[in-house]
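Lab channel / #folding
Pinned by the channel admin:
"Please post every new chain as: sequence first, then the structure tokens as a reply. Keep commentary short and put observations after the output so the thread stays searchable."

First post following the new format, from NK:
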Amino acid sequence: VGIKKCIRGEDVFSIRNITKKLGKFKLNNINLELKEGDIVGIIGPNGSGKTTLIKIIMGIIDADEGEIELCNETIENSPISFKNNIGFVYDSLQFYPHLKVKEFRKIVSLFYKNFDRERFDEYLNKFDIEENMHIENLSKGQSEKLMLSSALSHNAKLLILDEPTAGIDPIVRTEIMQYLQDFVKNGSSSVIISTHNTDNLIKIADYLVFINRGNQIFTVKKELIEQEYKIIRANKAELEAIKESIVGVKEYKYYNEALVKVGDSLKVKSLLIEIDKHKVKNPTIEELMYYYVNEVR
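Reply from TO:
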């Protein structure tokens, strides 16, 4: 079975109205589109639905509703080609701990039609991983790099990473993020990173998708965050005047702070001009998440 190529200029990957009910939890109507070269960060607290979404994309569990396309194919219509176009990096390497790296390479090569052993070995060399090392003796950072080597060595159109930098030191974390940027430089592939750690994500992501309690709260282009959102320190009367634009409020003894979605609101824009500049700041991703989780009811 051949591996289908994406048509340049079209969406590499799209999620349309994905819904999944698991007990009392429901992943509700998730939508996402990626073009060539996009790096998208899926963020949200633990239990928000990020891993459930990844499992649906990978075909590990089925969605109740909706459709996922990769290079104009679905996993139902073209399962082999679909999966060959995905590279996946787990948060930990839990299988075959007794194997040597070279034995792991042989197994991986059987799974992927376009597996490139020479490229895989180049990554091993870059990452200082010996092929005779046992997987169980690899450090957390080395395990992560081994999985990344595998994911980058079969010409995947979409690379998915689920909590890829959890528990590894900042130097390795930064190094992995750099390789992800290099991966999409030619513009022919895309990356999805699912994480609750946003320190490095903000440096490389083009878009952020925030999921909370199974709901897609927002999708925003990273460079537009500072235009779309502001944190304002104001009194109750000032905030009451712009209450339609307030996402959430933190109450202090002598003042309140509110996350405000600016949008086209003339009232918000007017307030931003009137109040002192030191009472306005740009939100971090963590602050966006906090205010949306604790939004105004």
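NK: The first strand starts at residue 11 and ends at 22.
TO: also worth noting, The first helix runs from residue 50 to 58.
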